[in-house]
Write a structure and sequence with these properties.
The protein has 481 residues and is an alpha+beta fold. It is 30% helix and 23% strand.
């Protein structure tokens, strides 16, 4: 989830400096944009819509028209990041994901960070996302989150320079990379001349990196692993991505009913008979993976899958129980994880956060609700949150009552003045708030990522939420040298 808000300070503009001049990495694009007729842009937008419809790139916008699926709006004006900025982000992202994986390995084994008192034990043991079933289970390479989506936002600093903050860690089933890839493909198709002006770093090798990552975490002794993508089915809002990634990697897309467990080994049914499965890239939440271990009413998983998993005969990416590390109540402790496990200072900072389970934090937040963003610790997709500056007095008072009933379920953060990027809207070009979700792949000893990530944009004027599930759009993200 990402939100934007104005706090009085001018947000950092990705394309223009405070005096209105164009930043150096946007210069060539600005010159091109000045020469392009508006009619051509309108025609290209229509071509993009038709092409996206043809391939079925949709997302479910919950609460709108009964949850009707629609196209994710795609903006033709790219977000451009200089290579030197990206390299620093890349360093910080790799550091953060290493620490998160070390934390997950620790809490399911020795729990040294809890013994040291660096994180309150009850925050972990009583967390709904902590899976006791994983205690003592060794996973290949000690890696729990092989595919991580780290949400970044940029806010204007006191000196006018933009500083990136980590807003959220997504370690369970992070989505959106298919839109990153399709956005780039669409931009290259619509504006091939633009790519002759820039040395835009490529992203189309992501499926190859993903497959290499998944093969690298196969069970010990497996030389040529069989990898599959496990989907809840065609009615899932992200089904396009599931099928897209399976096709791009050249692996089978399966549902739970396509597989079975025998003698603690997982097999999929094929026309040539049963075939052993070694690695599952799963796009199903923990609760639905195995009706014998979790929810008995689940029709999406495979009975006995956890037995095969605990026996070390199949790898799940991401591992069961990763959710405890991306829970919003744990987020404030990630910088401490970096220090504890890596002995380093964090490269990327968190957004300052109040934990409402703490008495002093609760008192402060209740006194400043109109100024803050308050989130449910288990919330996602922009739901279960209060954006104080954008809320009515009645909405604030209603949320106050909800907080008082269970303060431990909430955190609060300042309403950052998030960066904006020029965006094509009906009235022309206007600034809109954006975030960035890079996808970090951890396999073996390497951490890799494609340059940039998925830029999400709040398309409506005054909109504070960029999530696709609530009507936000996306942009192509260019890393340029």
């Amino acid at each position: 989830m990402s939100e934007a808000s104005n706090t009085g300070a001018a947000p950092y503009d990705e394309m223009h400096t405070a005096d209105g001049s164009v930043r150096p990495h946007y210069t060539s694009y600005a010159e091109w944009l000045d020469d392009v007729p508006r009619a051509l842009i309108d025609r290209k937008r229509s071509e993009a819509d038709i092409a996206f419809h043809r391939v079925g790139i949709t997302f479910n916008v919950y609460g709108a028209e009964g949850g009707k699926e629609r196209l994710i709006p795609f903006d033709l004006l790219p977000r451009i990041i200089p290579g030197r900025e990206w390299r620093e982000l890349e360093r910080g992202l790799a550091q953060r994901v290493r620490a998160l994986n070390a934390f997950l390995a620790d809490i399911y084994h020795g729990q040294e960070i809890l013994r040291a008192g660096r994180i309150p034990a009850d925050q972990i043991i009583n967390n709904a996302q902590f899976r006791p079933e994983m205690k003592g289970v060794d996973v290949p390479g000690g890696l729990y989150s092989m595919i991580s989506g780290i949400d970044l936002v940029r806010a204007a600093g006191a000196d006018g320079r933009g500083e990136f903050f980590v807003l959220e860690d997504n370690l369970r089933v992070p989505s959106g990379v298919s839109y990153l890839l399709e956005n780039r493909k669409m931009m290259m198709r619509l504006f091939p001349d633009l790519f002759s002006r820039y040395h835009v770093q490529p992203v189309d090798h992501y499926p190859d990196l993903l497959l290499e990552t998944l093969r690298a975490v196969a069970p010990a002794g497996v030389i040529d692993p069989t990898v599959v993508v496990l989907t809840p089915g065609a009615y899932n809002s992200a089904y396009f991505e599931h099928s897209f990634l399976a096709q791009q990697m050249g692996v089978e897309l399966v549902e739970g009913q396509d597989m079975f467990v025998q003698d603690d080994v997982l097999y999929m049914r094929t026309t040539q008979g049963p075939r052993r499965v070694d690695v599952i890239y799963r796009r199903i939440d923990d609760d639905f993976l195995d009706p014998l271990a979790f929810r008995p009413d689940s029709m999406l998983g495979v009975p006995g899958l956890m037995r095969a998993y605990r026996a070390g005969h199949v790898t799940l990416a991401n591992a069961v129980g990763t959710g405890v590390a991306d829970d919003k109540s744990i987020y404030p402790y990630v910088p401490e994880m970096v220090r504890f496990y890596l002995g380093e200072e964090p490269v990327l900072n968190n957004v300052p956060t109040w934990m409402l389970r703490e008495k002093d934090d609760l008192a402060y937040v209740l006194d400043h609700l109109p100024e803050l963003v308050v989130k449910e610790v288990h919330g996602a997709g922009g739901y279960g949150m209060l954006v104080g500056p954008a809320s009515t007095r009645a909405e604030i008072e209603d949320f106050r009552r909800r907080i008082l009933l269970a303060p431990e379920k909430y955190i609060a953060q300042p309403t950052l003045s998030l960066s904006t990027c020029p965006t094509f809207v009906e009235a022309g070009i206007a600034p809109r708030h954006i975030d960035l979700r890079p996808f970090v792949l951890s396999g073996g000893k390497e951490i890799r990522m494609v340059p940039g990530g998925l830029t999400r944009v709040a398309l409506k004027e005054g909109s504070l939420v960029v999530n696709s599930s609530q009507g936000g759009g996306t942009k192509d993200t260019w890393v340029v040298d």
